[in-house]
Amino acid sequence: MFILLIMALGSTWLAPFDPQELDLSARLLEPGPVHWLGTDQLGRDVYSRVLFGARYSLFLALTITLLESALGLGIGLVVGWYQGRVKSCFLWFANAISAFPSFMLALVFVAFFGQGILNVIVAIVAVEWFYYARFAIQLVEEIKQIEYVQVAQMMNLPLRTIIWRHILPFVYKPVLVLALMNVGSIILMISSFSFLGLGLQPTMPEWGMMLHDARPYFNGASWLMWAPGLAIFATVASFNYMGEYFSERISR
Hints:
By secondary structure, this protein is mostly helical. The chain has helices at 2-9, 11-14, 46-82, 84-98, 102-113, 117-143, 147-154, 159-195, 207-214, 223-251.
C-alpha cells in the first residue's frame, strides 16, 4: 500500500520519461535497461505511464470513495434516526436502484454524458452511495437501543448533540472500513470504463486506458497489457487486505 502511495505521489520524480512523450522511432520496444517495461505503440515509456497511472487511478478511486461514503453516512444517520416513512421511502428507492447492477447504471450514465473525470466521479457516486447509507442505517438502529442514547433522549439533549457525540463515533469507523474495502472495486470500475473507451481522455496514462490501447498488440507486445494489469491487481489486492485487517481490528 505504501509503495502505491509513493508511486502516486512521487511519479513526477520517479518516472524516467515524460509519460506523454512520443517517440515513433522507439515504438514497441521490449523491456530493457533503458525502458524497463518497454514502450507502447507510440514510443511512450510504459514504466513511466504505469507510475503516473497510479496517480490518476488512486486519486479518482479515493475521491469517489470519500464522496459516496460521506453522502451515504450523512443520509444513513438521518434515515436511521427518524425511520418511519423516511426509512420506507429510502428503502423503496434503494431497492429500485439495487435491482440493477451498479456498474451497468454507471456505464449508462457515462455513455450518455460522455467521457471525463467529472462524469466518471458523478456516475459512480450516484449509484454507489446508498450501500453506505443502508449500512449506516443498520448501525444507527442498533445504537439507538443502547441505554446511554435513550438516557440522552430522556434528558432532551439536542438531536445534533446526540448524533454527534453518542452515535457518530460508533458509526463512522465501520463505514470507513467498508469504504476501504470498496476502493478496489472502484478502481476496477474506473479501469473498466477506460478499457471500454468510456472513461478518461485517451491521452491520459490511466491503467484501464493503457489496457484499452494495448489490445491490438497482445500477441506481439504482451508487456503492454501485463504492466497495467499487474498494477491493477496489486492495488485491488492491497486495499482488500487492508480492509480485512482493519475490519478484524474493529471487531475485537
